[in-house]
Amino acid sequence: MSLILPTKRTPTTGQEPHGSTTEDALKSAWDYYNDDMRIVEAEREKEWEENMNTILIVASLLAAVVSAFLIETTKLLQEDSNQILKDAVVRLSAQYNNSTVGHYETPPFRAKATDVATNTLLIISLSLNLVAAVVAMLVKQWNREFDRGLRLITDPKDQALRREYRMLGSDSWHLAEIVNFIPVLVLLSVLFFIVGLFLYLLSLHQVPSWFLIVVSGSGVVIYFGTLIISIIDCRSPFRSAASRIGYYLYIRIRLILFATAKYRSDKRSSGFLEVNEEREKRHVNTRSVIVAAFQRLGNISHMTPRNSPRFYAIAQELLQYQPSHEDEEGSTAARDWVNLMGKIDVGLTDKDGRGLLFRAVTNTDVNALRLLQKIPGIRSRDRRGWNPLHLSAHDGVDISWMPQEIQEAYVDARDNDGQTPLFLAATNGHTAVVRSLLGHQRVNLNSKEDRHARTPLSVAAEHGHVEVVRLLLSQKDINVDAQDDSGRTPLS
């Protein structure tokens, strides 16, 4: 069993990682092991205690019912003294009236086959029930004795090793399998009781016996139906100890009959408990399950900019499961994925109208930016009409990290005032950004904004950004004679 390593101190500052404390930093690996295993043991102890209490209650009620019927059915295995007395009186009366009638002799007794079968089934039922009750009481004792004395051990290593030694003993003796098999004994006891009761009622009258078959048969159909469903579909909520055993046997039969590659991985399992976990593990890491998990976790109505770091992390995880070209268009999984991404985008949109795409730019997240760009409905413009390139150009953020195809898509876009990214970069004197934008063939050097009809060169000269002016004048297509709404040129 692997151990959880202690939290390390940051080498450069000596500070603890976020969320940890000085006490955490002083813990050893044995302390972490003991802390985690105490949680596991407490959960297991509570679960087993509750299950065993339920089994004992059911077993006691079932034992009372079976015993009551056994008192009646065992009489069928004995001679009826009243009938013998009746026969003797009849024979004596016959002898009194006719002296030739012989002496009365008791006929040999032979129980009916159905009576023997009835009592056998009821005794088996009671026996299984008692065995389940005894084992349940033993489990309660084993449960309480497991960690006895461990808390008194002060040395963390000694405590951990003793705990692990006991855990290994539980694993080697298959204690978990024994605990999960107890409910099966109770169910078998109920089944034997129903069959025995049917035979007993059948010997009395057919109507109540068939009524019993209809009612109890319905229960049996429901039980085995849910059992089969849980074996076939690991998503079903009907899982139980019996379903784990059933799936274990199902896998073994498939291996024996077909030995297909699909089931060979399960052959390495150490028991029926692990088989079901392995099957579930193969199914949970899918887009539909992950999307459903984040839908449940996110609680979209509470998705606000205040919680933006949390939900941006969710979006980053979801981007790894983006629908591929092989996915059926309009499939439920793909549609749910797109809808959830859209809700996150809307939920995280700030007062300036900037959502996921702008967050990716702020975080210089290349992969997220590429993937978000392809999602229909993800907003690429804020309330000013800015796209991510506008924002970077205005703030003077280096855009070299941004994929070229995205720069090409946004390089000549105009905001609500007709301003291009180049115009914003020139206005604020961001020479490096201007140089990067000029590297695109699609960039419009002489685009005029709407308010005053100024060009990037005009506004750079107006604000005295000499380096930007020199850079723009070095372009062969620059128009130095472009006039604004006042009739002024860039160099006038």
Describe this structure in words.
- The two termini are 79 Å apart.
- This protein has 492 residues and is mainly alpha-helical.
- The chain contains 21 helices and no strands.
- It is elongated and about 155 Å long.
- The longest helix has 45 residues, at 29-73.
Topology, please?
Blueprint: H1 22-25, H2 29-73, H3 81-97, H4 113-145, H5 156-172, H6 175-204, H7 206-232, H8 241-257, H9 261-264, H10 272-284, H11 287-298, H12 308-319, H13 332-347, H14 356-362, H15 366-373, H16 388-395, H17 404-410, H18 421-427, H19 431-438, H20 456-462, H21 466-473
The whole-angstrom Rg is 41 Å
Helix/strand order, N-terminal first: HHHHHHHHHHHHHHHHHHHHH
> How many DSSP H or I helices?
21
Oligomer: single chain
Largest sheet, strands/sense/barrel: none
- Class inferred from helices and paired strands: mainly alpha
Q: Hey, roughly how much beta strand do the residues contain?
A: under 5%
